[in-house]
Specification:
By secondary structure, the protein is of the alpha/beta class. It contains twelve helices and 14 strands.
Length: 334
Amino acid sequence: MACMKQIRVGIIGSGGMAGVRAEHFEAFDDSVVAAVAARNTETGRALAERYRATLYPDWRDVTAHDQLDAVCITTHNALHGEIALEALARGKAVFSEYPACRRPGEAASLMRWIERDDCPVVTYTHREPLSRVHAALRARASRLGRPIAAHFSRVTPGRGKRPQILFNLAQSGPPALFFVYHVHPVLDLFGVWDRVVSTAAYSELRDDDGYERFINTLSVSFGNGALGDWYWAGGVTVPQAEESLRFIFENGSMKRTAQNWESHPASTPDEPIDEISNLEQAVSRRFVDFALDPAQGRWRPSARQAIEAAAIGIAAEISQQEHRAVERSEILGR
């Protein structure tokens, strides 16, 4: 893609995040929503009419559209990788909600694409590249020496406001994929992973792969010798949701509290962190900036990391199904 003054975006999906992204792109002077693809004709028509965009019933109509510069992927997880690969093959920039992909072959193909000199811009909606909180954590981590361990635990009494499609193994994958925003920041702080072991138990698992309750564990070993472990339990009998996160380094640790992060030893400063006021809009803005000036390739590091994070979730699913450890090379081919 050569430099341009305005990008024409096709939105794929018509749910909540499709509306959020469309609102962002229309608010910018240098982007416009020109097309919408949606299986749900009612919500798709409403979104297309709101922004005077053309409505298509099939996402392939958007990826093949000659007058579009970019696609924004907001549909369910199972299609993220397939749509992104088709859009890249058509020369279009890609802006996708996480996870980057759902299948091993897609992860390897996406990784090969982003290493190509002729690859269009690929951006995922992980917030860490723009987050002031995460930048502060990176700075603190650099003062605490080599990473040793990360521990995450989350227990919830129900689904909250998450849509039904997330609790479906065929469409969204295991929690390591649809909660990938809990995996991504650890990957950024700890570096390249090399092996995954995961276990799972699902209650009331139906023929359509939907379920009502889950318990998942995920253990990740990193190339530098560090270990990460995650525990998710949803729909269980607890009075209220509980969550904890701790990072351990050679010379100290960091723990998330209700209001802030605590670092130990106490000599490590713990200044209050003021987050960007509208981080979601900033993520959309970053994609437009990248798409308008793709030649510098500034998007590549974060795209690579998003694919690595999704690959951990894919490896977790294989580990659960086959009851074994899964190597990084099995997912990414190198």
